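Quick one, T. Sequence first:
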Amino acid sequence: MAKLVLAGKANCPYYAKAELLADYLQANLPDFKVHKITQHPDKWEQWLHDICEMNGWEHRRSPIIWRELLDRGGKGLLLGGVNDFLEYAQHCYGITSMMLSEAMLDIAEENLQVHIEIEKEEEEIKSLIKPLQIWITSASGPICYQLIPLLANGEVFGMTTEISIHLLDTGQFKEVLCGIVMEAEDMAFPLLRSISEHTEIDEAFVQADIIIVLDDILLNREAQSLENYIREVSEICQVYAPLIEKNAKSEVRVISSGKTFVNLKAMMIMTYGPSIKPENVIAIATPWESVAKAMLARKLNMNAAGVKDVIVWGNITGCNYIDLSHAKLYGYDCAIWGPANFPRPLLNMIYDSKWIHSEFQSAQSSLSSQVCHCVGMLPAHAVATVLRYWYHGSPPGEIISVGILTKGQFCIPEGIVFSMPVRFQNGNWEVMTELEINETTQEVLGRLAHELIQEKLIALKEIKEMHPYGADKITSKKYLHQEMETLPTGSL
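Structure tokens:
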């Protein structure tokens, strides 16, 4: 069986003549099949050039006709133009066309109108499938570079959801942004409808469904005080928040990530953007979870993927507390065997309690340092993971730590962004308030909240400098680790 491919300009009278003859042959010959391709006159020359270059053909006019052998593969056999097709039909089937020029022109005009209508209908259908509009700030950094393939490969939003990515940064990084755009386009992700760079702040967040805030401050305590850095972050959010309110969609979801002041960025965006729904703004704590899980996995000589339910409390990029009291192990090789979904309490499997109270706690002070020195793969994976959970739900029963606006959960003061355990389901998150914590842990949470309250007050210019918790204690991470050493093993 042979298939004939007939392609031409939609308004070409010679295409019309060849088309009618091909339709007649297909209707009367059981083994003859025809596939027709029309192109708008404005696009024809480029299309013809591309198809000829791809197949190594030489052809300059409309129509172009070639023969393909079904089920055999390989490139087609070029027949040529309309005269070549007429000779082919006469020689093989004894049939030709006697269509007059006037009829050819009428059909050609009709073909053009049909082609335009089909194109318009396809555009309308395409417009109904609206892609998710994703904006990424400080997009010239390595986190964004690692994040784009994760967002575009379909694993985060699903294999049927198209996305458009908008990269936002200052004008000095325009060349970097253009390079990222070109590289992403070269990768030809099927679900990436478009990717663009933006350096004009006024056009930021237009029609945004998701905003990923990656802005970071390069901390140098010798150059200026912590309070000045906090005010600098506040000023950035004071620019972003009104633009989000003005340009983004009403249900926009904002994710604060990065290596510095993650909680504060989320807090200030809600403060300066009161119409932004608080439940749609979260701060990412997953990198700190991952680093802690890897540290525990190395101690236990197991895969870090089997360590679950490690909780990060407090100020994600500041003073936080890694809580192991609910942590579980899956697939751990020990004397007690069970199915793959059989969990074991982590604290029951680490018999060296001194290691927990000494090495693990002292290593917590280096967690931020480890995350800050990541090239971008870990923070990018964390953002992609949390977005996937937000849209499709987290694994049943698994604890995920994110910074959210407090409403008195776990007796934490209201009105600050505090990292705590949540679950994701049905497109929303829910705080896991059913988890039990003891009084000593509650005391630690109160001390952690103090730092976040202080940051908020400085950002709002209600105080000029950080005030210590009690007798100048909580401002020192060393003090917090000393306090945690007094906790019973089950609270760690």
